[in-house]
């Protein structure tokens, strides 16, 4: 199961795109060029380091920062070992949570999301898990099952991330972002506009997971929320189970998704 055991550690690892990655085959064999990261509001050296898998110390030294606690928005930082610039604020959420009880389900102004996988089974819910926190839900479905955009939006990331495997991140209005991880393949490009229901990838088991499932997150302003608060009435949540162990729960979401 994707993040059950130790989500925090996973996230720490989650981030860095390996330079020599498999995904690089389509790009020619040039040496990895120098990657710069432009600091955006809310980012700290800690979060940037976490995203790229580089220590604060190394970043500070490399960029000759005398005071690592002071970063200017717009400042460009040299990032070692990176293959590309990453959406740091998106992949290192400021905070994971907003408990269900804090929030009325389907509050006014909330986006109405559609299930990203039709006929899948929610095998793991959002929330605290031991000492770690599961930032999304896991929807188990056979490998190759289409993954659909949950809402209209723009693809802001489509690539591999360690831990997440092939992941797509879509930005929606209202500061919302949805995340689709462990894909067998990503079928939407960055900057592509997608419509709700559009196929953007397929279910797989890339990244850290022990079976084919979609790890699906909903964030608003980079705070993770329970996706079930935004989806049409629930697919039944099984007790935490091993990914790939298909439950026998009825999951009739097809209708809900074909609006
Ligand atoms: Zn998960």
Write the layout of secondary structure elements.
Blueprint (H helix, E strand, L loop, with lengths): L6 H8 L20 E4 L6 H8 L3 H7 L13 E4 L8 H4 L3 E2 L24 E4 L2 E3 L2 E3 L2 E4 L5 E3 L4 E9 L3 E7 L4 E8 L1 E2 L6 E2 L4 E4 L10 E8 L2 E3 L28 H4 L2
Parallel strand pairs: 3-16
Antiparallel strand pairs: 1-2, 4-7, 5-6, 7-15, 8-14, 9-10, 9-13, 10-11, 11-15, 12-14, 15-16
Bound molecules: zinc ion.
The site of zinc ion (ZN) has 7 residues, from loops.
Give a description of the structure:
The relative contact order is 0.20. The protein has helices spanning 7-14, 45-52, 56-62, 88-91, 254-257; strands at residues 35-38, 76-79, 95-96, 121-124, 127-129, 132-134, 137-140, 146-148, 153-161, 165-171, 176-183, 185-186, 193-194, 199-202, 213-220, 223-225. Helix content is 12%, strand content 27%. The chain folds into two domains: 18-85, Roll (Membrane-bound Lytic Murein Transglycosylase D, Chain A), CATH 3.10.350.10; 96-257, Distorted Sandwich (Glucose Permease (Domain IIA)). It is α+β, with helices and mostly antiparallel strands. The two termini are 31 Å apart. The structure holds zinc ion (ZN). The site of zinc ion has 7 residues, from loops.
